[in-house]
Write a structure and sequence with these properties.
Elements: H1 4-15, H2 18-31, E1 34-41, E2 46-52, E3 55-62, H3 67-77, E4 89-96, E5 102-112, E6 115-124, H4 132-135, H5 139-150, E7 154-159, H6 166-177, E8 184-188, E9 198-202, H7 211-219, E10 225-228, H8 234-245, E11 249-254, H9 259-268, H10 273-279, E12 280-292, E13 298-300, H11 304-315, H12 325-330, E14 333-335, E15 350-361, H13 364-371, H14 376-385, H15 391-400, H16 406-412
Helix pairs in contact: 1-2, 2-3, 7-8, 10-13, 13-14, 15-16
C-alpha cells in the first residue's frame, strides 16, 4: 500500500526535481515518525534510510549523478558552505510542514569515499512534552523520582546510552516543576525543545561557552532549578555540586550503564564520597524498547533457558513494587505478529517506543555503603533490597503487560547474575 508522500518522493527522484526530492523526503519522514534521515552515498547508488522506533529502514534510492545537487540543497537549507566538501559540517534548519508543524532539523555532513553522507535529526517543536506515565515510569521508579524532585535542593541524574530518551525525561521533570514562582535555567547543547517558562541557553564550546561556564553564569541569575545538558568532566560536576550545596535543585545527564555505576563514574572524576552522598537525590538509568503493535501482536512461549532467567528476576522483585502477581505466575509473553498487511505497523510488528527505568533513591544505608567504599555489586544488591527495580525487572513487567517483547527487553538490559 503506497503512501502518497512516498509516491511523491519517488516521482521527484524520477523527474530529477531536487528541491521537491529533499522536501518530500522530510515530509514523508515526519509522517511516519522518523527521528533521523540518513542520505548515504554507496558505490553505485545513494540510499535514503529512516530511523523509526530506533531501527533504520531503507526507503528509496536515487542515482549518484544527482547527489551533489541534493547535498547542495540540504547545505543551503542549513546555512552551510556548499563549496566545502573535504571536512564535516554541522548546521540547523527550520521547516514548517504543509499541516503547520514546526520542525527543527539538525544537519550533519561527513565526507566519505563515495561522496558526502548527510544525516538530518528531526525535532518536532510542536510536540507535547510527555508525562512520566506516558514515558513509562511507574511503580517504585515513579515514587523515588518524584521524591527526589520534591526536595528543595540536590542533584538528579539520568543515565543511559545516546538516544535512550534522557533529555526527554528531564524535560518531563521540568514540566512538573515549571511553576510561576520558580526560576528555571537550562544550559543545553543544543536546546532541543523550547518550553515557555524556562530560561534556556545553548553552549558554544568554540567560543569557550561550556557547560561548566554556563552553569556558573546560571548561578548568578538567581535560579531555583538548573538543568545542565550533560555532565562530561570534573569541572562541570564540581559546579553542579556547588550549586546543590548552595540550595539549588540540579538536573543533568551522564553516560553510564546503570544507576549504581553512575556512582563509580562520579568517583572516578575525583569527587569525594562525602560530597556525593550529601548532594545526589536520585539516579535514573533508562533504555528505550519498541512497543508491540497492539493490532497484530501474538502470544509467545519462551524457551526453557529464557524462562529460568525470567523467573529468577521476577522472584527477586521487591515486594513493595506494584505488580500483577497473577501475570507473574502465568508468565504469558507476546511477540511481534507476522501480518504484512497490518495497517498500523506495516508488517514490522512494533509501533512506537516506551522507556524502562531503574531509579536509585539515595538513602542513609546507601550513603553509609558509599562512605565505606563498598563494591558496586554490594551497593546494587542493597538498592534492590530496599526497593529499586532493575532495568531487567522493569522491562519484564512491561513484557508481562504485553507492551513489549522479551527480545526487546534483553536487547537493552542485562540478565541478573547468579
Amino acid at each position: 500500500m503506497d503512501n502518497p508522500k512516498l509516491q511523491a518522493l519517488q516521482d521527484a527522484i524520477v523527474g530529477g526535481n531536487i528541491p521537491q526530492l529533499v522536501m518530500n523526503a522530510l515530509s514523508y519522514a515526519i509522517e511516519i515518525r522518523c527521528s533521523d534521515v540518513h542520505i548515504e552515498p554507496l558505490k553505485n547508488t545513494v540510499a535514503i534510510r529512516y530511523r523509526i522506533d530506533g531501527s533504520l529502514r531503507r526507503i528509496v534510492e536515487y542515482p549518484p549523478n544527482i547527489h551533489p545537487a541534493v547535498t547542495s540543497r540540504v547545505k543551503i537549507m542549513a546555512n552551510l558552505k556548499i563549496d566545502e566538501q573535504r571536512v564535516p559540517q554541522d548546521g540547523r534548519a527550520q521547516v514548517t510542514t504543509a499541516d503547520g508543524r514546526e520542525m527543527d532539523i539538525r544537519v550533519s555532513t561527513l565526507p566519505t569515499i563515495n561522496g558526502e553522507k548527510i544525516v538530518m535529526r528531526l525535532q518536532d517543536q510542536s510536540r507535547k512534552i510527555p508525562t512520566f506515565a506516558e514515558l513509562g515510569i511507574t511503580g517504585n521508579a515513579l515514587k523515588y523520582l518524584q521524591e527526589g524532585l520534591d526536595l528543595p535542593n540536590g542533584i538528579i541524574l539520568t543515565s543511559g546510552p545516546t538516544g535512550s530518551g534522557k533529555t526527554t525525561t528531564l524535560y518531563s521533570a521540568l514540566s512538573t516543576l515549571n511553576k510561576s514562582d520558580v526560576n528555571i535555567m537550562t544550559i543545553e547543547d543544543p536546546v532541543e525543545i523550547q518550553m515557555d517558562g524556562l530560561n534556556q541557553s545553548q553552549v558554544h564550546p568554540d567560543i569557550d561557552y561550556t557547560f561548566a561556564g554556563g552553569l556558573r553564569a546560571a548561578l548568578r541569575q538567581d535560579p531555583d532549578i538548573i538543568m545542565v545538558g550533560e555532565i562530561r568532566d570534573r569541572e562541570t560536576v564540581d559546579v553542579a555540586i556547588e550549586a546543590s550545596l548552595t540550595g539549588h535543585l540540579v538536573l543533568s545527564t551522564i553516560h553510564t550503564n546503570s544507576a549504581v555505576e553512575t556512582l563509580t563514574r562520579i568517583m572516578n572524576m575525583g569527587v569525594p564520597a562525602f560530597l556525593m552522598t550529601a548532594t545526589i537525590n536520585a539516579i535514573v538509568a533508562q533504555r528505550l524498547v519498541r512497543k508491540l503493535c497492539d493490532v497484530c501482536r501474538k502470544p509467545l512461549v519462551p524457551d526453557a533457558a529464557t524462562l529460568e532467567i525470567v523467573k529468577r528476576a521476577i522472584l527477586h522483585l521487591h515486594p513493595d513494587e506494584p505488580f500483577d502477581k497473577a501475570k507473574g505466575a502465568a508468565l504469558q509473553f507476546f511477540g511481534p505478529g507476522e501480518k504484512p498487511d497490518c495497517a498500523k505497523c506495516n508488517g514490522i510488528g512494533y509501533y512506537g517506543r516506551v522507556g524502562i527505568y531503574e531509579v536509585l533513591r539515595m538513602n542513609n544505608h546507601i550513603r553509609d555503603m558509599i562512605l565505606k567504599n563498598a563494591s558496586v555489586v554490594d551497593i546494587e544488591k542493597s538498592c534492590l533490597e530496599t526497593g529499586m527495580v532493575s532495568l531487567e525487572q522493569a522491562g519484564l513487567i512491561k513484557a508481562l503487560d504485553g507492551i513489549t517483547s522479551l527480545e526487546e527487553v534483553y536487547s537493552v538490559a542485562r540478565p541478573e547474575a547468579d
